[in-house]
Amino acid sequence: MSENLRNSPLHAVHEAAGASFTDFGGWNMPLKYGSELAEHKAVRSAAGIFDLSHMGEVRVTGPEAGEMLDYALSSVMSTLKPGRAKYSLCLTDAGTVLDDLIVYRMDDGAEGAVPEYLVVPNAGNAASVYTALAQRASGRDVTVTDESADTSLVAVQGPQAEQILAQAMPAHVQELAELKYFAHITLALPTGAGDVEVLVARTGYTGEDGFELFVHAGSPEEAGGRGSAVWNAVVKAAEAAGVELTPCGLASRDSLRLEAGMPLYGNELDNAHQPHASGVSFAVPASKETDFVGKSALQGKDEVSQVLVGLKGAGRRAARHSYAVQDTEGNVIGEVTSGAPSPTLGHPIAMARIDRAFAAEGTELLVDLRGRGESFSVVPLPFYRRER
After folding, report:
1. Which residues have CB under 8 Å from 311's CB, separation 6+?
2. Can you give the residue ranges of the GCVT N-terminal domain (predicted)?
3. Where do the domains of the chain lie, and which CATH numbers do they carry?
4. Residues 83-92, buried b or exposed e (16+ Cβ, 10 A)?
């Protein structure tokens, strides 16, 4: 492993758990702890715990914070209610995707309160997003602060995630039960090192119910210590509740998000393609009248030549990133952005960017699997949707 990779603040926890590591966005992160298939199935059936401390955290504060984010991002943030979160895109001037991210409204909205937002970009793009936001805040009464190094992030995902956190925070059972999807609340979590303040968000990247726990401190060392304390407290709570909680790495996180039809930056999203060609049209509301970076360059939803679709394999061989997609006569019409066998569904699945003329549900296509055309058909996204 390269000496230039950054370790997570929870690195020692992962080493003790027997993790194998991989380079992800310049970070030395757990790939898996044992079987990635077992980790995937654990999240679908019970619960898994993930270290997401490689993600970025950028705080935007000031009287004009909401208006600045309206300009800086594709979605409307000035009207986001306190305690809520929203998925959005940070676009380039050319209308392509610099990053996708989640924004949390942090102030309470009371009269006289200073607007405050927490922007969470992807690991490899955290520095670029911070730079872009700082530049787009120029001339406005706004402060942009990169808190990535001082924040640890632990996710608990799966149908029994709420039960585990209720055991971990018995004084906040009701608040956890009432917390809506894409909402957040700050709570105290008892640990062996004392109570730790955590931002508890009902968000995730697996297609299951779950929570993400942000631990902010004054230094990377403090954040790492508190993050490890939170991880260990959640693991102990699961044991006390009699719930199996499985440590999960990036391999299962990727297969889970693929089943849920969630885009990955560098695969479905990149700075070469616009949102309507990448399956994230919902993040560019047509009703947004105010100007924002990239707006004038955006193609309309019906104007892009290629679109993102789901593909279901007829055989057992899986398509992979960058494999060519062909029509039934062998003409190349696009390429796979992500692909893998689906542990939950039992057949290969893929997302692909293809010519829109072939995007209708049920269209039969081929994927070039190393010189041999394998049959796939266009299906709706997501591939998997949990029972509510």
Report:
1. 319, 325, 336, 339, 349, 350, 351, 352, 365, 367, 376, 377, 378, 379
2. 10-287
3. 6-56+150-255 (3.30.1360.120), 58-146 (3.30.70.1400), 305-388 (2.40.30.110)
4. bebbbbbbbe
Torsion angle (degrees, nearest 10) of CA 375, 381, 385, 388 = -160
Please list the pLDDT of the chain residue by residue as tens digits (388 residues): 456 899 999 999 999 999 999 999 899 999 999 999 999 999 999 999 999 999 999 999 999 999 999 999 999 999 999 999 999 999 999 999 999 999 999 999 999 999 999 999 999 999 999 999 999 999 999 999 999 999 999 999 999 999 999 999 999 999 999 999 999 999 999 999 899 999 999 999 999 999 999 999 888 889 889 999 999 999 999 999 999 999 999 999 999 999 999 999 999 999 999 999 999 999 999 999 999 999 999 999 999 999 999 999 999 999 999 999 999 999 999 999 999 999 999 999 999 999 999 999 999 999 999 899 999 999 999 999 998 7
Burial 250-278, CB ≥16 within 10 A → b, else e:
bbbbbbbbbbbbbbbbebbbebebbbbbb
**CA dist., res. 382 & res. 258, Å (int):** 8
Residue holding tokens 């929203």?
Answer: 86
> Whole-angstrom Cα distance, residue 237 to residue 246?
13
The kind and range of the H/E element at 285 are: none
Burial of 165 (0-12, 13-18, 19+ CB in 10 A): buried
Nearest to 237 by CA among 228, 248, 245: 245
> Which parts of 160-287 fold into alpha helices (H)?
161-168, 173-178, 220-241, 250-259
Cα–Cα distance between 27 and 1 in angstroms, integer?
Answer: 10
Q: What single DSSP character describes residue 172?
A: G
Report the b/e string of 139-156 with b at 16+ CB within 10 A.
ebebebebbbebbbbbbb
* Angle formed at CA 237 by CA 82 and CA 17, multiple of 5 degrees: 105
